[in-house]
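Attaching the record inline, Q. Sequence:
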Amino acid sequence: MDSVWQLETPSELDACNLMHLLYEQARKGKVSSRNLVKRCYGDGWKTIKERMETEGSVWYVWYMDGVRNLLWGRV
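Structure, as predicted:
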């Protein structure tokens, strides 16, 4: 996944890539990935799926909150 964002740390790019992989696995029905993504965002699967399919500055803040939760082990 190529990033057009200016991330704060190089580790955030790795975490974004991992989140993308987890989300794709979750969309394909992998329960463990879906559960981890849900824990990162603290939202239900339907809400996560809707937000992942939209863009914008509010979306970016929400997305990066989940990525940082994954990166910093807050799940």
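The radius of gyration is 12 Å. Residues 11-68 form one domain.

More tomorrow.
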